[in-house]
Amino acid sequence: xxxxxxxxxxxxxxxxxxxxxxxxxxxxxxxxxxxxxxxxxxxxxxxxxxxxxxxxxxxxxxxxxxxxxxxxxxxxxxxxxxxxxxxxxxxxxxxxxxxxxxxxxxxxxxxxxxxxxxxxxxxxxxxxxxxxxxxxxxxxxxxxxxxxxxxxxxxxxxxxxxxxxxxxxxxxxxxxxxxxxxxxxxxxxxxxxxxxxxxxxxxxxxxxxxxxxxxxxxxxxxxxxxxxxxxxxxxxxxxxxxxxxxxxxxxxxxxxxxx
Length: 259
Description:
The protein is built from eleven helices and ten strands. It has helices at residues 2-31, 43-57, 68-76, 90-96, 130-133, 149-160, 164-167, 177-185, 196-202, 233-242, 245-253; strands at residues 33-39, 60-66, 83-85, 107-112, 114-118, 140-143, 171-174, 191-195, 207-210, 219-225.
């Protein structure tokens, strides 16, 4: 019996040693991973930032992209994200007042710029806002205002110009602002409201029209640390990096406004 018990103790001890050396490095690996939910308009910029941060901090970043509204819903429903990079302020503010967000970590990392975009040369001689009222325009693209901050800003523009009701039947809603850009780029829309960053980063053709800032609310894009990442030092380091001068310079070059 003594020999049997001794053998059992040996097996249990060996099991604990195995768990320690296998599971502990795995936990350490997870601690070095950052999972970020990022608004579609910021997907290309975050990829530039991601490469630099990973190289300098010996960590791995995983990105989940979509409209700010869809990402917010995923977070509320338990998505294991560490950081949320929204395309507006409203949703991070909401998270700040729930168990999902970490209070005191929210800040504006960039302010977006809204442009009107077309690749149809027949419209290139038009000026803003006359182009929107042209009878030649059949399809106007914008992100769904319910979920897409840039789409909400586009709706504000049309309402400010008092033409939303006139053009409502021509409006084609997209699930995110990137989709609006792509549909315009490939000629599936006549014109569309896009983020300036999409045009700066991706476009090799087409024309854009500046939209006066007084026609829509500033598109302040906020970041917030989520409860899932609260104990991850790398997540906090990333947020500091996101607000650094060199990242700000990069964002300016990509079409964003930063303070």
